[in-house]
Amino acid sequence: MSERILLTGITPDAYVSDADRWALEKLKKLPLLPQLVTKFYEVGIDRWLYCYNMASSIRCGPNQYPTLYNILRESCQVLDMPEPELYVSNNPFPNAFAGMIDTMSDEELYFIMGHELGHIKSKHVLYFSVGSLLFPLLDLLGRRTMGASDVATYALVLAFYEWSRQAEFSSDRAGLLVAQDPAIATRAQIKLAAGPSRLAHELNQEQFMNQARAYQDADALDKLGKFVLFATMGKTMTHPMPVHRTQELERWVLSGAYEKILRGDYKVTDAVVPQS
Length: 276
What we know:
The chain has about 280 residues and is an all-alpha fold. About 60% of the residues lie in helices and about 0% in strands. It has one domain (about 15-195, about 205-260). The chain has helices at about 20-30, 30-45, 45-55, 65-80, 105-120, 125-130, 135-140, 145, 150-180, 180-195, 205-215, 220-230, 240-255, 255-260, and strands at about 60, 85-90. The longest helix is centred in the middle third of the chain and has 30 residues, at about 150-180.
């Protein structure tokens, strides 16, 4: 594609959804979370995770997977942020991790990279790290040690899952801002939903979008089914369902907010004026 537009000085407020912001504030207000964050650092789990990556994955750089490194570097330039370390691991399951390299084209990887960078820029990573270890950490420390009742613990878990799903919508927006092509973002979402397949050439992007719209515009009976599905399974999912994510991203594009940002109309850091 043509040279990407660099979003100089862009802040997370430019793309973070209102629902994400609301859910995170709700999560932060729960009394158990500050204790968990404190224990997270006291025990040194953040360093454990870093050492695990160093020991089990391959770090990208100019001379190590340069294609991925260049995608990372350019994506960071678009979002105007420092380059984090990037690791490739042997993970066969399609998700926002390096195991999908064989599934995605280079252009689609820009969307995936932008999505992950969106999490970093929005400071989601701390809460994701705590959440991913939430249950073992509670068991390790003991709920009585934390001074929390089962009700308080359950409330924290549900609040975390709600915020986690909303954070994915925000980071999808960051991914699109890096890919700078809604069609590419949609193709990446399709591959997240379908996974690798020898029949990938038969996927129909427009049919997938029709499916996403039909899901959102369900009749009363189907809406009841969606509610039951969420109540029994969805409330403890960390990611929204791929079809729902795709439709939400399309709605953001149709709202005009995406094009507005690309034109240079977005919230910036102090003393920075975006190029129009």
